[in-house]
Amino acid sequence: MTAATHSTLFPQVPETPDAVLDGLDPEQREVALALHGPVCVLAGAGTGKTRAITHRIAYGVRAGILQPATVLAVTFTNRAAGEMRGRLRQLGATGVQARTFHSAALRQLQYFWPKAVGGELPRLLERKVQLVAEAAARCELRLDRNELRDVTSEIEWAKVTQTVPADYPAAVAKTQRDAPRDPAVLSQIYSTYEQLKRDRSVIDFEDVLLLTVGILQDRSDIAEHVRGQYQHFVVDEYQDVSPLQQRLLDLWVGDRDDLCVVGDASQTIYSFTGATPDHLLNFRTRHPGATVVKLVRDYRSTPQVVHLANGLLSQAHGKAADHRLELVSQRDKGPEPVYAEYSDEPTEAEGTARLIRDLVAAGVPAGEIAVLYRVNSQSEVYEQALADAGVPYQLRGAERFFERAEVREAGTALRGAARAGGNDSLLDGAEDLAAQVRAVLSTKGWTSRPPAGSGAVRDRWESLAALVRLAEDFETAKPGATLTDLVRELDERAAAQHAPTVQGVTLASLHSAKGLEWDAVFLVGLTEGMMPIAYAKTDEQVEEERRLMYVGITRARVHLSLSWALSRSPGGRASRRPTRFLNGLRPGSTASGARSGAGGVGGIDRGTGRSAVGRTPAVERKPRSPVRCRVCGRTLTDAGEMKLMRCEECPSDMDEVLYGRLYDWRAAQAALLGQPDFCVFTEKTLMAIAEAVPSTAGELVVIAGVGNRKLSRFGTDVLAICAGEAMDGESEEGADET
Fold first, then answer.
1. CA 690, CA 405: separation in Å to the nearest integer?
2. Interval 711-726: pLDDT, tens
């Protein structure tokens, strides 16, 4: 009933209010028409919840039932708020406020502070880490970077759960929370941090909510002013509401009932920040007359992906599990999920990169592929593997699209060309809008063919290419559009943070992938201790880890790969087990989690099964031999030590002259291939070669970072340099032939 949501084409604004409802399924339509009284929408992954609530708002506005300025839609991220504003604009519902809780509260606080308190609002502290470090120092504690991050998160949790410093130890005991330090010590740091803020007249993001709540509670006149302004509320991702956000929402709504909440208890993955699904699950209790609509038609994922997601939740326990939604896929059949076991993490990354390269070769855009992992520290090995495979990638959480230097420069150039119109010689011969944009952006680094490899040059090209695609889609949707029209569209998108798609495989943590989707998803590192994470001790914590994996699975539209490695490092002991969450779900496994005999786990051969592009993967590699220190002979397990092939404490005997020659050779090769230097060899690999001074192919190939592929490509040159031979044009010809 509803189309896939990832098209970049610009939909036409519906001509009538009834046209806003076109294409909605029966349940989505019910949501759109439920414009009065409390409404609770229980929406499973991929069921079109954003579509339902934006069409609800747009229908109400277009039909004259809702006044745009009286509607406040709140969500949890700037990206989600920007997407909502973009969709409302496309539906002809301009003037509706779509903001995050913090953004809406800050706006009100800035407006009412002079009246409620007097003077100017204290300066907002953008990052509290430095002040927390100072507070710890005053308590005679020195925290390293990781401890500082954990203590800062703990202070944030205390504030959003409305726990003051003196009550923090009792709150930790009551909730069985694993505090990163002794609760009494954390209470002291927390109290000192609050005192430092008062001394310096600054507030943090949590204070924005706390102060807004305080003003609305204490000043009934201000509370009535806000309620007179906003009379209709929509809350997205309601399962992630914290007690403090719920208190603020209650004050906004007052004794009225024009409230629509949307959420899915099975996607509650932020309890460590104070989020709780209780408000969603208890909504009917608080509002006995509420309309409850369940969205279970999954338009995102194939039946194969949905079947796995449903199976994962069928084994869940707890209150959230009691309210799980059984999804029903609305898509045609697709490939079965791929399960792959590898000997170690580097091999897992290399295997994943090969499958991704195959997908891209088969026609799946790189921007429609994601690699998802449990913690950010897992990304490095996949960055290296994708770079080695020549596949572009982007890290989730990087700089916002419209804030990138090349995008700002492109906007300035397009704006200048629009003002010049026919007087700009650059546009001579460019008959349509897309051709004009390509002509302008060609002066900023865009070319019809992408540069090879990855790195800053490729990142810049990808940003400009995204603008070119946006112009092409804009012209398709709006024939006759001019450069001025496009510039206006870009300005509106920048204001809403409604960015176009950048082509490159996304590397992201499972938490940061929430709310996103791709054609192909690779869930990696699925071992006990990582999924569920080692510090998930209680049943409730383990169930949240299960929900996190559910979120990861349901990001995939068609292709889904799940993999794990039996050891961290090449040659390490194969002591790891695949996550318990797959027991009874992956072929050959049992719900009891029993492992089968040697040669595989759960009856699955390493790297077997059909790949995501429907081909049988390459023959399994033989297990790697243990990597030993070439100085003392100890078996190495640390990734950095294995790169250098020696213990960290063992003396280095690197040949500085050889290293310099290798360094210069690498730069020349990278320039010749049009790739970043690290795509040839990383710095650590060059150092390892200069220390080992290999004389044979066998000695070179065992150096971490070389491998068979790079041996065949660069081995002759490297061995010649190590032998002290002078390099001539022969190496360049050899490079051209590879």
1. 38
2. 888 898 899 998 888 7
CA distances from 419 to 407, 416, 440 (A): 18, 5, 13
Q: Measured between alpha carbons, how far is 17 from 738 in angstroms, rounded to an integer? A: 61
Question: Which of 88, 476, 46 is closest to 295 using CA atoms?
Answer: 46
- Measured CA to CA, the distance from residue 175 to residue 178 in angstroms comes to 9
CA–CA dist 601, 584 (Å, integer): 12
pLDDT in tens, 115-138: 988 888 999 988 888 899 999 999
Q: Which helix (H) or strand (E) holds 680?
A: none
| Secondary structure (DSSP) of 105-142 | HHHHHHHHHHHHT-SPPPEE-S--HHHHHHHHHHTT--
Rounded CA separation 339/308 (Å): 12
Residue type, 155: I
Cα separations in angstroms, 696 against 57, 476, 703, 704, 734 = 70, 58, 12, 15, 18
User: Residue 568 is encoded by which pair of tokens?
Assistant: 């961290």
Residue 361 has pLDDT above 70, yes or no: yes
Distance CA 329, CA 120 (A): 53
Task: Identify the burial level of 260 via C-beta atoms within 10 angstroms of its C-beta, where 0-12 means exposed, 13-18 middle and 19 or more buried.
Answer: buried
Closest CA to 372 of 267, 532, 509: 509
pTM score, two decimals? 0.66
Torsion of CA 609, 610, 611, 615, to 10 degrees: 130
H/E element, 556: strand 556-565
pLDDT in the model for residue 383: 82
